Prior knowledge:
This protein is mostly helical. The chain folds into 2 domains: 1-30, no CATH class; 36-116, no CATH class. It is 82% helix and 0% strand. The protein has 6 helices and no strands. It has helices spanning 2-9, 12-20, 22-27, 35-63, 70-91, 95-116. The longest helix has 29 residues, at 35-63. The chain crosses the membrane at residues 32-56, 68-89, 95-116.
Amino acid sequence: MILGVMFSAGNPELLEKASVEPLAALTGILPFWFYVPFSIVIIVSLISAGMTGVYSSGLALLAMGAPLSRAVSTSLNAIIIALGLSYLLFISDSFLMTFQSFLAVISVIMGSWGAIQ
C-alpha cells in the first residue's frame, strides 16, 4: 500500500488508475518477478494473522471457563470460523446484508449487556 502511494504521488494518472484497480495499475511499472515475493508475503501474513486470531479466540474461550484443553478450544473456534466462512461464501446471497444483520444482533446483545452493567 505504501509502495502504491509513493508511486502515485509522482504520477497523477497512476493515482487515478490505482483508485479503480490497484494491482493492474502497478503492472506496467513493476517487473513481473515482483509479484511472486509480494504474493508470498501477503499469503504468509494472512495465514499468520489468522492463526494468531484463532489461537487468541481459543484462549478467550478458556478464559470464560470452558472445560477444554487449549488444542480442543482452538480447534473448536477454527471449526466455527470455517462454518461461518462457508456460509458466507457458498450459501449467503449478500455479504453486506449478512454483515449488517450480524452487527444488528451484536448491538442488541451489547446494548442490553451494557444496560445491566
